[in-house]
Amino acid sequence: MTTQTRAPWRYVLVTGGIIAVSTIWYLLQVTVGAGPDAIAYVTMPVTAAVGALAALNLVRRGSLSRQARRFWRFMIFAFGFLSAGYALLTVAAFRESPVLPSMPVPAAALAGAGFLTAMWAMVRVPLGITNSGERWRQWLDRSIAFLGCGTVLFHFGLAPLMMSAGQWSVQAITLIGMSFVLAIGAVTKVAYIRGGPIDRSALRMIGGTGLVAAATAVLMTTAGNPGTIPAQAVLMPLAPALGVLAARRQWNSTGARPRRANTWLPYLAVAAVDVPLVAVIPGSLTWTDRLVIVASVIVTGLVTVRQFVAFRENARLLREKRASEERLQHEVSHDGLTGLANRALYRERLAVQLATGDTTVLLVDLDDFKTVNDSLGHDVGDRLLIAVAEVLRAETGADGLPVRLGGDEFAVLVTEPTALGETIAQRILDAFGGPVSEHQLLVHASIGIATGAAGSPLDRLLRDADVAMYSAKQRGKANWVRYHEGMEQPVSTHAQLGGELRRALDGGEFAVFYQPIVALATGRIVGVEALVRWLHPARGVVGPAEFIPAAEGTGLIVPLGRYVLRETCRQAATWLAEFGPDTLQKVGPNVSVRQLHDPDFVRDVREVLAETGLPADRLVLELTESAVLRGPQVSRTLHELHDFGVRMALDDFGTGESSLSLLRSFPASIVKLDKSFVDGIELDEPGSAAADARQAVARAVQQLAGALGLDTVAEGIENQEQADRLMLLGYTLGQGYHMARPMPAADMTRLLASQRDHAAA
Ligand code: C2E
Ligand code: CA
Ligand code: CA
Question: In terms of DSSP bridges, do strands 586-589 and 743-744 run parallel, antiparallel, or are they unpaired?
Fold first, then answer.
């Protein structure tokens, strides 16, 4: 079995040739008289036979699907039966010549079998619908269409035929009826086929054979004998000719493209049945009959309109539903304030894009937005965010998707493969060069850019952009930075250091150093400040500046501070036991704000004092102004401690802002003048504003403290001149490298011992 790619022309040519010859014969017959009328009957069986052969060839040689092959196998038989039936008629024609024959029963039976076979094949053509509800609806629609069209054809074709003179045998009329049914069946079926294995045009042509047969019959009825000869010789053979063309069409078919099913056919059918109804009105009917007919026509018309309106309405509802679904979809995927895409949509799009190709994102963070919000109010803040969103939208253009991640954090997903993240970032920064929003506010943004390789993890890319953005902020804001490998190191040292500190604390690597606080006039030690040190196994003694920020950031300051507190109290109690109650008036550990927020802090302090036996009034907690200005909870903690007898020192005094009111509300008993006012206080530069200002602050602090009954300690004294100058300003206590550096407890013990010996001597 060989398969040809293109359909052969020979069946079409042969059929065309036969019809051409018989047409010429007919013309000669009418003009000059060429042989008996019976010759006219030869054309039909011959062309039908060619049709059967064409179908046979298609089935054997064409490349068909299983279903198409079944259909066309039926068509071989259909044309075969027709050919045989009309061959019998031809025989009858020659036998009865010159009288025109009537259809012998076996001939009619064979032809009828042909029509039935074709109809059956048509019925079995699959519609390409899988949904069962849809199938039922279509059956209904097709039944309406079938009945509607059938009624019209019956009224104008078959009925007059049956009513006309008795020359039409029952056989002939049955055949004509069948051809009608085939034609209508084909039309209503083809209208609903959504695709499938059998070519739609081919099906239409098969349906056309029925129409040709029916039309021919009508011609014969109306024209009588003179019509019968051309009908048999020329018109009727057009039916098998259509079959041949259909076979060729199927051969070349590339497979029917799916399309929307027809929806207008039932309306047309309903309207069509009214046509015969109206047509009978002029006949012999009573006026009441006519009224009934008119009413039924109006009713079907109204039902049709009603149906159509319902259909339109459904379509509209469907459109609205789709629109509201889209709106909902928009709401869940967009930011309500700015209308930009939100984080969810961002991640979704990002995931899709990252799966298939390299993807660049920009993380845009506004600088100092909080200040605007806090000082100008949320309304202005919102207006500013909207303006920023506008800028992002305009500057991103078609190159990407602008996103609001939340707060003052925005992003751009670059979607245009050729667009450069840097270019977009620069455009955005340039746009922020001038004032935005109707409030003419100046905004700046820091932008981090990162690119993820196709298939790389999404969270990695987001983290890289984050790191780059922080780096941009660190470099002085209002600029962009692209992520590069290793950039996160300085940013993540906090976390890394946090882990190391934890191990160091567990491993006992921390120690407390003590720096004496002395009476400036005599040099006598009146107290100590406790300062933590990290005795690092590799790096030696590490100062608090290098790890306190990380300890505060990770929360480790709480256990670390607890350790310092306990160690300080324990050591102080030991010294008191050894050197007597006059040795140290105060021991001062530093306390950070994080510790004050710890709900257990007060309890910890009381426990430590109870355990170590250190009297509460010997303990002076050193706090900074910013730490004590942290709201009612901290304030309560401080007052509880105060009521318990613990004293407090205000550290780094003079560097903050609200010193005066603070001194009134805060239960401090000591003020420590910050080192920055001590630095250079001894210099007598006439007219030096800086030196004057320092002296003025030092004096004011001393007078203020004196007025409120507080002690003062001057910090960071590095030479005798500073000490002298401070004494002149009224300071009695000081602390600094000039007197002693912070030292381990053992050194401090020796120092205290020598002081006792000295006093004894
Ligand atoms: P601070 O409370 O102001 O402590 C005084 C700092 O000044 C100490 O630095 C001390 O060594 C240094 N210092 C003392 N005299 C002089 C001087 O004459 N010249 C100069 N240049 N410096 C002097 P240190 O020990 O490095 O501590 C730095 C800061 O770390 C402290 O400042 C304190 O705020 C914090 N700190 C230290 N230990 C602890 C602690 O156990 N817990 C908490 N939360 N913070 C601590
Ligand atoms: Ca301190
Ligand atoms: Ca200080």
Answer: unpaired
